[in-house]
Amino acid sequence: MIRVLELFRSFNGVPVLQGVNLEVPTGKITVVIGKSGAGKSVLLKHVAGLLRPDQGQILINGTDLTRARGRELQLIKKRFGVVFQGSALFDSLTVLENVAFPLREKTRLPEREILKRSRECLAQVNLPPEAEDKYPDEISGGMKKRVALARALVQEPEILLFDEPVTGLDPPMMNTVFHLIIKTHRENGYTGLVVSHDIPAVFQIADYVAMLHQGRIVAFGTPAEIQRNPDPVVQGFLRGAIDFGET
């Protein structure tokens, strides 16, 4: 579904991505791990088409996202849903209006169908009907994450991107969000790409794990393979993440 080939990107002369190569298998969830500042979110923004690389390719089913323009680029982006770090909900819109927003902006569906689809997505992430009229500042951080996930699902994307999906949550709510990702993936069959530093908890949602270090992918495999990987860089990161209380 997604292939990243020799991706380079610098900011103000400082290299961040230095030849990233990554293949994201279709229908699976791939988690990118690495230290803070390693470039995980930068990589995700390139895959989402929000940034353009200095060099390299991002192939979406064989089409190079980095060269696409105009309508071709918009058609590619329609295949994506994004769960942003911090949820990125609109404060002036209710929960239901936030979820409905992509359909109202990007489709010509009748209002009845928009509301029906939006409510189905809210139910899919276990939010009760009484939540739909609340505003973001009236709900908890965990509920905001669930609304953000519902909004990302509402256009039935083939690819779902998650930028630090459980940042700021306590362990019980973190597990709730991870279980919802597993549930919605099973029900919708999307290809998932997640960036996270929440080790080892994030391994519970991963089919595959890639480690980004010094601008390159230095390890790739199943969660079990990554945890057994003898590379001192990989083991040092895993031990350090756990020692510093990242769950």
TrEMBL record:
Family matches, as Pfam families: ABC_tran
Domain ABC transporter, residue spans:
2-239
Keywords of this protein's UniProt record, alphabetized?
Answer: ATP-binding, Nucleotide-binding, Transport
Source organism superkingdom: Bacteria
Which Gene3D superfamilies does the UniProt record give? P-loop containing nucleotide triphosphate hydrolases (3.40.50.300)
Keyword Cell cycle on this protein?
no
Provide a Gene Ontology MF annotation, just one.
ATP hydrolysis activity
| InterPro entries, per database record | AAA+_ATPase (IPR003593), ABC_transporter-like_ATP-bd (IPR003439), ABC_transporter-like_CS (IPR017871), P-loop_NTPase (IPR027417)
Q: What is the recorded name of this protein?
A: ABC transporter ATP-binding protein
The organism's taxonomy opens as: Bacteria, Pseudomonadati, Thermodesulfobacteriota, Desulfobaccia, Desulfobaccales
